[in-house]
Amino acid sequence: MTNAVIECILSRSAAKYYDPTAALSDDQIRDLVRIGTSAPTSFHLQNWRFIAVRTPEAKARLSPIAWNQPAITDAAVTFIVCGQLADSSVIPDRLAPLVAAGVMPEKMVPEWEIPARDLYMAYPQRQRDEAVRTGTFGAAAMIYAARSLGLGSTPMIGFDAEAVHQQFGLSSDEVPIMLLSIGPERPGNWAQKPRRPVDDVLDFI
Ligand SMILES: Cc1cc2nc3c(=O)[nH]c(=O)nc-3n(C[C@H](O)[C@H](O)[C@H](O)COP(=O)(O)O)c2cc1C
Question: What predicted TM-score, i.e. pTM, was given to this entire model?
């Protein structure tokens, strides 16, 4: 089973070495996020925000609170991928463009909002889980889009979440779920590492 998309997925690896002289334009960065936000989210919540750290000054602020990982200094951009705690009250707003486009009948909006309220409102852990899921899906789409464009990527959990929250002005409902560096690579990166055998991770029932 193969095609260009599968080849892109199978050939991705986490980059360590980036071309420190390379930059991405704001339009290229915007495009990556636009592609990322095509990922699915629960009830179409779209509960994410992406902070593009791409100037030397911003990189210098992020680096010391992210283990001084070289990718932050060297990659063209490092996104602070933020998930927002799931909040069902935003659903009418988030669905309004679908209603306006005639995709969803207006009377269906409460049919999404009410179960979402029941699912999340009294359950902080679920709100946070959804923030992490949402941000992860968005980041994954950006990782594979980057690969398809010949760019390297590195998801990173090696950072001080509290310090990032404070330094970069995240709001109280935002969780910095990962850093994601993206940019042109320089030689020396490893190929994708071998994986555990499928039979070790797959159960047929
Ligand atoms: C959630 C997550 C956090 C990670 N954090 C870091 C990190 O802080 N620094 C780093 O160099 N790599 C980090 N990685 C990259 C992993 O080490 C890498 O994906 C893994 O070793 C598999 O290698 P591959 O992606 O090249 O197949 C992270 C990956 C994920 C998914």
Answer: 0.98
